[in-house]
Amino acid sequence: AFYRQTxxxxxASIASFHKFALELMQFGAPPSLLKKVQAAxxxxxxxxxxxxxxxxxxxxxxVGPHTMSIQPQLAQSLRELxxxxxxxxxxxESIAVVLAANQRVKATEPAICAFxxxxxxxxxxxxxxxxxxxxxCLEQDPSIAEALESIDLNEVVAPYRLSHxxxxxxxxxxxxxxxxxxVLQGLQNVVxxxxxxxxxxxx
Length: 203
Description:
The protein has helices spanning about 1-25, 30-60, 80-105, 110-140, 145-150, 155, 175-200. Helix 1 (about 1-25) runs antiparallel to helix 2 and helix 2 runs antiparallel to helix 4 (about 110-140). By secondary structure, it is mainly alpha-helical. It contains 7 helices and no strands. The radius of gyration is 17 Å and the shape is globular.
């Protein structure tokens, strides 16, 4: 069940990155950013394939994606895009890396170890893409810094702190306590310092 949920999240990320590409194009982002988004889309497709494969193996039955109702609402302003990129990309992807790294320490199953190592490498690039996009947004409109400064980080990470799965260390599934600790570690050691560094450059 854990890896089925993981697979569905990875699958949904494919649509999120497609939406992100449209938003970047809408505001005239450079091709260099779009190229990295395109690479991220391929990463997420492969993550979903790997996670569905793991879930299918563990459950003993074929597991695949659900149908999706996709009606994307594109950001209406560069500020709105920047705030969403911070919450979903800079925070979400950074925490995903820290969680996967903590899972990898526990995991012993070869297929799961390979999956987590791939996630760590790729989601690190996706987090860098988010921070790079934020820098580009601030270069276009420095006043966006005010919107980023006003974000309640504890509120942003609250959904990531929840985990109702029982720990299975060999499968890389953390206990609720370990999960929460990793999320807070990502917030304190990665997100906050990176945000402060970024904003300092535009003060």
